[in-house]
What does this fold into?
Amino acid sequence: MEYRGFMLDCARHFIPVKDLCRLMDGAALCGMNTMHWHLVDDQGWRLEIRKYPRLTEIGSRRGPAYFGAANEHENNEGFYTQTEAREVVRHARDLGMTVIPEIEIPGHASAMMAAYPEYGCRRTVYTRDGETVQETPYTYEVGTLAGVFPNLICAGKDTSVRFLKDILDEVCELFPGPFVHIGGDEAIKQHWRRCPDCQRRIREQGLRDEKELQKWLVMEMGRYLHEKGKKTIVWNESLDGGILPDYFVVQHWLGNDSDTAEFMAAGGKVISSEIGTYYVSRPWAFMDAWDVYSAPAVPDYAKAHPENLLGIETPMWSERVTNPARAEYMIFPRIRAAALKMEGVEMDREQLLSHLREISAKLETIGIHPAPESVWIADEATRAEAKKADDARRHAPEAADTWRICDDLMRLEAMEKLLIALDMPRPFATRVMDCAFQKVPEFFGTAENFGGDGAEEMASQLCTALDNRSFGPWKDLPEQVWLDTMKCFTRFVREHIASTGWAAFDRGFWTTRQIHAKLFRIGELEYELVEKEEGKIISIHIPTDAHLETDLLNASVEQARSFLKTWFADWAEAPMRCSSWLVSPDLEAFLPQDSRILRWQKAFDLERDEDGKSSLLMWVFGLCAEQLAAGVDLNTLKEETALQKKLKAFLLSGGTFVNGKGTLVRRFE
It folds into this structure.
């Protein structure tokens, strides 16, 4: 393989030039010909950019951090001058090695934004009175925790795009090699979704969403580098927005195998860096030398087009690697096992160990102290003990903030994506997220709050729903049923808009059923699982957007029975019952005989139920609970349909109306 790479992350913990060059010497001895130099991240900016001095004046400094290692007080500060960067490039050239710099775009940008917050996003805030724009809504700091954060550079401001290009100008001058890496991974887009500049860019460029906005920005940077004679490397998340041109190279580390395979089928070149196989920052007991060597040289996604696999890279991330000595321990001689595989050398386990002894002895002669042979091959007991120790670190008191923030940010990203999938009106979706974001005020600032709109309750319920989807009663249930059921939140907000002219959520008492997987939308109807003294009952509910066509109704019932048989077998044969104004015997006096509602009723054995006036006011005349509570002047009821006209006259005359109830006993006809 032509590309035999290793990566040094100097952003989380700084590695002085002298030590960096020694690590490069060791890597070259192990057969590597490329160093991927991870220079910037949330936790530090390590490269001097003369046009923007605050990048290193501010971005290269942070206080004590906690990433899960024993010592987080060393090498938290420091940067490479341009003179030092050139020295590293010269040293690499003498070794026959290429240096690939990485400047993260658009995410992992906390250090960048701490230095130049003016290139971050503005924020649109919605209230009942309208919308306002906060010019400087976010406070940025150089990161002191591990994780993925929403601090992205603004993709909507032309000044931000120029800022990035200016940085790349200086990077290209410093690094003469053919590649520049711009990251493109782990960009959670919560700031972009409420930024008026990013939203304008989406509209002007004809983009569908923020995912395509990221691709637009990545493409803009890639084209710019292409004009300078460079190829652009990105992590494989950048394929989310579609295939990239041939002047891009994809570094595959996790997931989206089908996207990478499609890119390779189109002729795209790929570097293999699977997290479970090549991340040498992982403990030896999790990924020993034999694991590295014995993994397939050509991963599954590349098997159809192995000619487009450039090679393999072994990343060393430094969250838990705080000094050069620890880096030597983690890297050597493990990367030699990867190089042997790339060279096509075939060995058994004993031959590999023998070879690693030889290479370790050579490493010692140049001042590298590799890991001892006792850790090169891990047995099951050692792996189990290492897993136990790693779990203990994750649950240490010092890690509490890290996991709280990471878990909440990932949950909030999932919530925002869910609101988009549910087609929630954007202003109200933003209000819901503003409430949810109060869990992590470190990253979202403040927003005007006002009571009475139910946004906070919806945020709480959707958090519960997403937890239930991940590891609760919704886990493993069909995705379509999940989405169709959750759309009740959007339906209720739109009903409130129709009733009052403004968005609110007032059905939290009802949606507890949906979020806990007790009520499901399947086709046109909803089915609630109810336990009563006489046994299990399936209660049928009719959403306001249901279509009462015979074929659709019968299909819904059949699909519901099939769903229950598969997922809730105890309910598969339970009787289906309906209690609603739509099955009221009184409706016959107000509807023509060929009415779909009357045909719908014929599938049930019906009887009269409780008073139904409130049901009529809510479902026929479109009033909300707030309006009912305030009292209703019947003279003001709408008369837009024949049914409304008849029922309004009936109610004004003092007539009484009752709901109906009954068991579904036959097909709809």
Notes: Residues 408 and 439 are 7 Å apart (CA to CA). The chain has two domains: 3-395, 575-669.
